[in-house]
Amino acid sequence: VPTRWHRVSEARADSFSVKAAELLQANDFDGVELSVQTALQIDPQNYEALLFLAHLKQYRQNFHTSDALFRHVLDTFPDRAAATAVAWHDALLMRQRYAALATLSLQMAAEPTTSTASWVRSALFALRLEKNLAAVLLANTASVATLPAPVATLVRAEELARSGSVVAAGQLLAAARPEPLPPYLVAEYVGQLLALNQRDAASVFFNS
Fold it and tell me: Given CA atoms 8, 9, 12, 13 in this order, what sign does their dihedral have?
């Protein structure tokens, strides 16, 4: 009987989720949120409804609640962590919330089950666009400390360049070739060196 009731609850929750999608088409965002909240009252562990609500809160610029919901979904459904993280990434990118995007990307880059290259590139992208870089790096000290040395060098060089130490940033990048790098990191080094007008050093990386 408990199993049967659980299936009934899932079906009822799904019906409210369908209703929410219909209201979304009509731009009735209050109605959408009510329907999703009702679905979650019936089935609090409904993955799709939780994710839907997180997206809705992000769209309505209730960022604190949205981030908490995405984090809850990420932690509650570890078997769907990769898909959840990508959904959160896309929501942050759409809103140009680069500090939060950098934080998520740095954390995911350290996860052994995720695409490290994709998350490293996402983190570097967000850090380069974030205006308050120093504060973001300070808040993510632990995550930055887990980065592979060549990636940490890229982050440090960005920090130096943004603080006005352009020459030091270029020198740091030019000296950082302890071992062969994967192609995506070669591209990152070349791009950053070119941005610092270090063409000779970029050429060395490109041809190595």
Answer: negative
Cα–Cα dist 164/171, whole Å: 14
- What's the gap between Cα 26 and its chain centre? 30
Pairwise CA distance, residues 104 & 62, whole Å = 18
pTM above 0.85, yes or no: no
What phi and psi, each to the nearest 5 degrees, are found at residue 155? Answer: -65, -45
CA distance 102 to 98: 6
Residues 12-66: tens digit of each pLDDT: 445 555 655 665 554 667 877 888 888 888 888 889 889 989 998 998 899 999 9
Long-range Cβ contact pairs of 152-158 (< 8 A, separation 24 or more): 154/124, 154/185, 154/188, 154/189, 154/192, 155/123, 155/124, 155/127, 157/192, 157/196, 158/124, 158/127, 158/128, 158/133, 158/192
Interatomic CA distance for residues 68 and 74, integer angstroms: 10
Q: Exposed, middle or buried by CB within 10 Å (0-12, 13-18, 19+), for 114?
A: middle
